[in-house]
Amino acid sequence: MNIELRAYNASAGRHEAGTLTVEHHPLGVPSIPGRLETANARYVLDLLDRATDGATAGEFDAIVTAPVNKGVINDAGVPFTGHTEYLAERTHAPLPVMMLATGALRVALATTHLPLKDVSAAITIESLCAIVTVLNRDLVKWWGIAQPRIAVCGLNPHAGESGHLGDEEIRVIGPAIARLKELGIRVSGPLPADTAFVPRILADFDAVLAMYHDQGLPVIKHAGFDSAVNITLGLPILRTSVDHGTALDLAGTGRADVSSLASAVGLAIELSSRSPQ
Predict the structure, then answer these.
(1) Where would I find the H helices in 76-196?
(2) Between 16 and 154, whose confidence is greater?
(3) How far, in Å, CA of 81 to CA of 162, rounded?
(4) How would you classify the pairing of strands 229-233 and 239-241?
(5) Is 159 left (phi over 0), alpha (psi -120 to 50) or beta?
(6) Cβ-contact 88, 234 below 8 angstroms
(7) Separation between Cα atoms, residue 141 and residue 145, nearest integer Å
(8) How large is the angle between the packed helices 174-182 and 125-143, nearest 10 degrees?
(9) Helices then strands, each counted (H, E), the chain
């Protein structure tokens, strides 16, 4: 299919089939597929800034991001931990929450890119209450779920087994859930993570909160790696993204799968078409 490229014009009318509107931003140096180039790191961030500022101003309904290589941006002398944190700082959002979704399965994270040894200390009653509040609010706002049902995983095997396998469930997670229930949020747990994702249990919930990255994301990527979408909750704008990394070994080969990016675009269109409540 032939696609006609057109220069972006903010005042232009509706998009026409068979065309692609592009706002040109020149690279710092020419791009070579599969090769990282620190001279283009600022270019990547400039694109994020342009998209974020446009969405904040109402020029864009949503932004969809492709994966970035965090290492090359840091090597260029720019502190960068990821899209989620960068967009939160740019939009002055106090608490971004990472959530991945595929179909009806939605998994949010209590902590994101932390070494496993640091997870326990990062989880507090206050942080869990704040994260679940954001999760609950955005499920109402973007998905239109009037009273979201949220499952909260435990941190330890078997959710701590009454304190015999760790006490975070007793000291932190349980009290946070009790406080959230007092606020009227429909939250349950702490549930053992090895059974929280059993289909008959998942059927009772609209989202699951995992305590750390590799507790929740392997499940959702197994369920739908080709269709899973990363959504940043807690922002004043709508942002979706792919569920995978840069796959530099596939660059320029024609073998890269665009399914997750297509899903991210589709979900952005679907969610932005709803009037936020």
Answers:
(1) 83-91, 119-122, 125-143, 168, 174-182, 193-196
(2) 154
(3) 35
(4) antiparallel
(5) left
(6) yes
(7) 8
(8) 50
(9) 11, 10
Domains (range + CATH), the chain = 1-93+244-252 (no CATH), 94-234 (3.40.718.10)
Residue 276 has pLDDT above 60, yes or no: no
Query: SS3 letters for 29-84?
Result: CCCCCCCCCHHHHHHHHHHHHHHHHHHHCCCCCCEEECCCCHHHHHHCCCCCCCHH
> What are the backbone angles phi and psi of residue 205, rounded to the nearest 5°?
-135, 155
Query: Using 50, 70 and 90 to split pLDDT, how confident is the model at 32?
Result: very high
Which amino acid is it at 105? Answer: L
Distance, CA of 109 to CA of 211 (rounded, Å):
6
Residue type at position 157: P
Q: Using CA atoms, how far apart are residues 75 and 156, in angstroms rounded to an integer?
A: 36
pLDDT tens profile 182-200: 999 999 999 999 999 999 9
Q: Does position 277 have pLDDT exceeding 80, yes or no?
A: no
Q: What is the largest CA-CA distance in the chain?
A: 64
Tokens for 206?
A: 């609209």
Residues in the chain: 277
